[in-house]
Design goal:
Elements lengths: L4 E5 L2 E5 L4 H8 L22 E6 L7 H11 L2 E6 L3 H10 L8 E6 L3 H6 L28 E13 H6 L20 E4 L5 H14 L4 H10 L3 E3 L2 H8 L4 H5 L6 E5 L2 H7 L10 E17 L6 H11 L2 H6 L1 H4 L2 E2 L8 H6 L11 H19 L2
Parallel strand pairs: 3-4, 3-5, 7-8, 7-9
Antiparallel strand pairs: 1-2, 5-10, 6-9, 6-10, 6-11
Helix pairs in contact: 6-7, 7-15
């Protein structure tokens, strides 16, 4: 249920973003749907002008029928070159700048965006249909070097049964998490090794400012926050509300995860429950936006442009939620019923400008580590 894309900060690996089908399905013992036209290392656009190569993190997923529809509409076959986690994939493109391994790169989010743009990885392209994408996610609107594809919210999730059994109201905000009744209940991820952890920290930076977030973390540490290396351990082992956590006898009823976690818990449960076993503290959320860009030097530029157009088509956007557990960015794209019924709607997420993240990220990580891990 997690995508385990990875970003790099100060040479350290960061496990990134959304709950994907793969990890949750593994935790529940079910199989997942293969989701790409081709995912091996053959058939690149350089070899065949009717092939367009999408370079991505390992968590890219789409229904085969939807990718086949792209082929029918355009004549191009999509070859997906999965390159590990997001940061590793981005690093490889930086190293091969000007001679890219594919035509389009998908998977750079707002915590990594400035790094990609500073390295001039993309050829500007204004995608067809961009007028249907919300202006709030168009972080490069002036130059169109990248196109927003999806968004997701990192939030504290809670185990409904635990709080009902203990007759305690679940926390709703960052301020709640440092109250005595929530002592020793929260597990989060290491900011230096996990992008959900990084996103949660960035949420506190946005909430309390550059002068206040460190004091907040000192209080959170004093209140017994537990830190795991990554999302998988935190969510599927230590969190008492997840399917994996129940099996592992997890003892933390609060975890940093995603607003899309409750629908995933419902979707892969057998039998499916009538209500989600987990909830979301919607005032603890940090929004991540994911982008695609036409790689500079792409061998199949026309195919790459067509693919980016398709990624913001309503057909692809409506296919994303149950494949990558993310939210569409295109106006009018419908989400599946399991999302609308069980998902948390975050109306006022915390955000930090990509340039601000780029300027301060390394120092913020060092400061956080000195406070929380000492």
């Amino acid at each position: 249920m997690s995508t385990t894309k990875r970003a790099r900060t100060s040479g350290r690996t960061l496990t990134t973003r959304k709950l994907t089908v793969t990890a949750l399905a593994a935790a529940l013992g079910v199989s997942t749907l293969a989701a790409c036209g081709s995912s091996d290392d053959s058939g690149s656009g350089a070899e065949n002008s009717k092939v367009v190569t999408l370079v991505s993190h390992d968590s890219f997923a789409a229904s085969p029928a939807v990718l086949n529809e792209f082929t029918k509409e355009t004549g191009y076959t999509v070859h997906v070159l999965k390159s590990g986690d997001a940061g590793a994939a981005l690093n490889q493109e930086i190293l091969s700048k000007g001679s890219p391994r594919g035509d389009v790169f998908f998977g750079v989010d707002d915590t990594l965006l400035s790094r990609a743009l500073d390295n001039n990885l993309f050829t500007p392209y204004r995608a067809k249909g961009l007028d249907q994408v919300g202006s709030g996610v168009q972080l490069d609107a002036a130059k169109h070097r990248v196109t927003p594809i999806d968004s997701g919210d990192l939030c504290v999730n809670y185990d409904k049964k635990y709080f009902a059994d203990h007759k305690i109201a679940p926390p709703r905000s960052f301020d709640d998490l440092i109250k005595p009744q929530y002592k020793n209940l929260l597990v989060t991820e290491n900011v230096a090794t996990s992008s959900p952890g990084l996103g949660f920290m960035l949420g506190t930076v946005a909430k309390y400012g550059n002068d206040g977030w460190q004091a907040y973390w000192k209080k959170l540490r004093a209140n017994g926050v537990k830190v795991d290396d990554g999302w998988e351990q935190a969510y599927n082992n230590d969190f008492s509300g997840s399917a994996g956590g129940k099996k592992a006898k997890g003892d933390r009823p609060l975890v940093v995860s995603y607003a899309s976690s409750p629908p995933a818990e419902v979707l892969y449960a057998k039998p499916q429950p009538k209500t989600a076993p987990t909830g979301v503290a919607t005032s603890t959320c940090f929004r991540q936006i994911e982008f695609a860009g036409l790689l500079d030097g792409a061998k199949n530029e026309a195919g790459g442009k067509a693919l980016i157009d398709f990624l913001i088509s309503k057909k692809f956007q409506e296919d994303m939620p149950l494949n990558m557990f993310v939210d569409p960015v295109v106006k009018g794209a419908k989400e599946p019923a399991v999302f609308t019924k069980f998902g948390a709607k975050v109306t006022a997420p915390e955000t930090v400008a990509p340039g601000t993240i780029a300027k301060n990220r390394d120092q913020w990580v060092k400061s956080w580590s000195s406070i929380v891990l000492k």
